[in-house]
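Re-run with default settings, no changes from the original entry. Doing this only to confirm the output is reproducible before filing.
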Amino acid sequence: MKNYSVIFLLAIFSSCASIKKHNEQRASCIPPEQLKEDIDFAYSKLQQMHPQLYWYIPKKELEYKFDSLKQTITEPLTPLQFYFKLQPVIAGIREGHLSLRIPRKKFTKTEIKRLEHQKGMFSRFEYYISGDRMYIIQNRDSIENIQPGTEILSINNIPVSDYIKKYRGLISSDGDNTTFQPYFLKDLFFNFYTAENGFGTQATLETLYEGEKRTYTLTRETKSDSDLEKDKEMQKKTPEKKLNDYVASSNSYNRSFRFLDKDSTIAYIKVKSFSRDYSDEFYKKTFAKISHAKSSYLIIDVRNNYGGSLYEINNLYSYLADEPFTLIKPSQLTSRNVPLRTNYFRKSTPLEYALKSIAYPSYFFAQTFSTYKKDGKVFYKMKADKPTKPKKESFHGKVFVLINGGSFSASSIITAKLKNDKRATLVGEETGGANDGTVAGFYSYQKLPNSEIRFPIGLLLVQPNINFSDSRKGVVPDVTITENMQDILDKKDPQLDWIKNEIAKEKQNKGQ
């Protein structure tokens, strides 16, 4: 126990690393030779741990990109400046899960509390990006009476198009997919912007609406007592919030269910994220209701769902299957020791660090015996690569699935499987995630030695158990229907409407 006390004390001291020191490092300039060392380090770790590094880019081409980057490093750079040089090369690997973490300023507890007592400037709007143009499509608090459909021309006199062109190069989907970027970029745009410009107290927007240019000044307002009380109320976990996986930051649910018609023949499930939280109970209750109603049609909406838990999608598929199925193929690793490089102690509090130290031997043996070799390759044991039986209350009617460019990772795995098994009709646009799988699963969180930029590397090649398309594309819908900004502004849903009309036709034909 004395040893664990020492570990506990060491953990306390290490967790007290100065925020000031971190921010000074972030603002300091790093010599070119050290930055080049970081580039070599990043490529070396990718070669060691990434199981499908040259899936979408030839080895020679990637080596040329890294070498060319090193030749451009001729003067000292801050970590953030270096990030904007290295990340486009990482994005060029065309693996959507592979990305450097933005080197951000850290805040003290006092600063965090102050920010929590203020309203955001940019987060109170919803955005739409088309090409190099950005529009506001929702103004939740009616700030300055800015109308949905307003184009943002510039922020603090810098054209938005310049930012979009710069930030687009930081984002990669899987393979040659082109539908993912507009969805992901609209969500990440102000993450990049604030990393560059900080959390300012005001910003000037030049806008265009119905041919008229106007200028607005946004300010970071202080929350009222009623706002703070509302925040507290939103944080409370009710049974409904747990079941539907409530997200306080967006005041929305990750999962929801309803019938779309009076006679309950059309069931509709919306999943914004496969978070796994309370998902067993949600699907059990939902499909019990569908079974009791004897619904003939089921619509599953995974548009703008960036993925999540393999466990959850395997469980969901078990409610759609007519016979035992295997969701994914065995997941490949680069070596047997890779599972032990997942940063077991990452983000641990001092107490967690001490407890994890005690449990580490069990973790070590569990990870060691979770791999196996076959045909000269190393694989990781996963529940989803074993046969799964259908649930007793599985749905046997007709299934439609709504997809778009924001359907990524686990969303693409399950939709690729549904399409391959001819279990559903996919409607919408090509998914942002690849049809033939991706590299993710769990990560090794590397840190570049000189810039100290974090670099998580996916360790598992996860592929749906299907006949591969070798298309380098996302999951292509059976029926392609796109949605434009005007549809959103008019609160129209042409993709869902197509399914409703198709069901109405089928009902009519059956009635005849």
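Residues 118-219 form a domain with the Pdz3 Domain fold (CATH 2.30.42.10). Residues 497 and 503 are 10 Å apart (CA to CA).
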